[in-house]
Design a protein that fits this description.
By secondary structure, the protein is of the alpha+beta class. It has one domain. Helix content is 41%, strand content 31%. It is built from one helix and four strands. It has one helix at residues 14-64, and strands spanning 73-78, 81-91, 96-106, 109-119. The protein has a four-stranded antiparallel beta sheet, with helices on one face. Strand 1 and strand 2 (81-91) form a beta hairpin. The longest helix is centred in the N-terminal third of the chain and has 51 residues, at 14-64. The chain is rod-shaped and about 95 Å long. The N and C termini lie far apart (110 Å). The relative contact order is 0.13.
Amino acid sequence: MGKGPGVHGDGFTLLELLLTVALLVVGVVSVVSALSAGVTTDQSVEGQAIALTLAQEEMETLKDSSWASVSAAGQSQVSGFPDYNQEILVSGDDPKEVTVNVYWAFKGVQQKVSLVTLLTNPSP
């Protein structure tokens, strides 16, 4: 015997199918968006880690230098890292306040990491 009008078979209606597809699209777009944000954050953190390492290396070089040779230096490109610039600021006499700034661009915006320390004359 055939089914009467208004009686559904075992399949899905067009409305059910469209709702399922819409929910899947929203889910996929959300996952892709989250992955994209994660990649961007990872790149930002990588840039900060490189800049911090470069600043720490320069600070250690200054600490190992003679007292008289610790002086300010304008912005210059970091050797081996063409996307990074550094500058050294020195103020005061004893102790000297030494600031190492490292600059780089991320997505067109200049970023900066600064390290500050005090150096005293070991033989006054």
